[in-house]
Write a structure and sequence with these properties.
Blueprint (H helix, E strand, L loop, with lengths): L1 E6 L5 H12 L2 E4 H10 L3 H12 L5 H13 L6 E4 L5 H13 L6 E6 L2 H9 L1 E3 L6 E3 L26 H15 L1 H7 L4 E5 L4 H17 L5 H4 L3
Parallel strand pairs: 1-3, 1-4, 2-3, 4-7
Antiparallel strand pairs: 5-6
The structure holds BIS(adenosine)-5'-pentaphosphate.
BIS(adenosine)-5'-pentaphosphate binds next to α1, α2, α3, α6 and β6.
Length: about 230
């Protein structure tokens, strides 16, 4: 199964992608996580991306397209869920071409819908694990021990782009450059809007309902039906 999860910054893409990937045995490919790993490793790509990420604007398409094409080519046959990519119509067109070259298409696009005011609150309270990438929130999703990752005991950190000014910029960038993807995908394949306000497990259940229906539909090809 090949999926894209769309949504504003802080809509819960990372949180839900982890659940979806675990449920259907898919590879979770987050462009933001890949960029943060490159930055932490001090690579040329990471250094190139840093100034864009820290000011809340998009990293140039050519950098992202090469990076994501490489990651997608390495994905296992069972499929993947893309988180944070594509983020411009140009990126979506390139993704379509890349998949078509391997005789593949996307099976579904899910769009997490959320109000900007909720997003701002979520992002300023977010804490993440620098080692395993687990995501927490100081009020909504607390770790068992404050400031410590449940999975590996690492000290949780706040992302440098989660300050109020950068968050405002990221939202502006989202509305200008990424939101047009909603219409692009609505007119081009299987598309589901998901209400992303509320309990994360309830949101996962809504998503699983849609995806189970897709997997079990008579039209589903064997790629989609394959479920670990
Ligand atoms: P990226 O890392 O992709 O950030 P983003 O899209 O801004 O999304 P976030 O990771 O902030 O939020 P999320 O939707 O994953 O929410 P989460 O689950 O963490 O990109 C960062 C930067 O990299 C970009 O600004 C850009 O510069 C660059 N970049 C990346 N991809 C690019 C591309 N394709 N092209 C160009 N540039 C690119 O949840 C947020 C918080 O809310 C957490 O604390 C979580 O615990 C909490 N939460 C989640 N769900 C709920 C819920 N239902 N109720 C209450 N709290 C919740």
């Amino acid at each position: 199964m090949r999926l894209v999860l769309l949504g504003a910054p802080g809509a819960g893409k990372g949180t839900q992608c982890k659940h979806i990937a675990a449920q259907y045995g898919l590879l979770h490919l987050s462009s933001g996580d890949i960029l943060r790993k490159e930055r932490a490793a001090g690579t040329k790509l990471g250094k190139k991306a840093q100034q864009f990420m820290d000011s809340g604007v998009l990293v140039p398409d050519e950098v992202i397209l090469e990076m994501m094409a490489e990651a997608i080519k390495k994905a296992p046959a069972v499929g993947f869920i893309l988180d944070g990519f594509p983020r411009t119509v140009n990126q979506a067109v390139h993704l379509d071409k890349l998949l078509a070259a391997g005789d593949r298409t996307l099976d579904a696009v899910l769009n997490l819908k959320i109000d900007d005011r909720i997003v701002a609150k979520r992002m300023t309270g977010r804490r993440s694990c620098p080692q395993c990438g687990a995501v927490y929130h100081i009020e909504n999703l607390r770790p068992k021990v404050e400031g410590v990752c449940d999975n590996d005991g690492a000290a949780l950190v706040q992302r440098p782009d989660d300050g109020p000014e950068v968050v405002a910029n990221r939202l502006k960038t989202y509305h200008q450059q990424t939101e047009p993807l909603v219409d692009y995908y609505k007119n081009n394949g299987t598309f589901f809007d998901i209400d992303a306000d509320g309990d994360p497990d309830r949101i996962s259940s809504l998503i699983f309902e849609k995806l189970d229906a897709l997997v079990n539909s008579p039209e589903a090809n064997k790629d989609v039906k394959r479920k670990l």
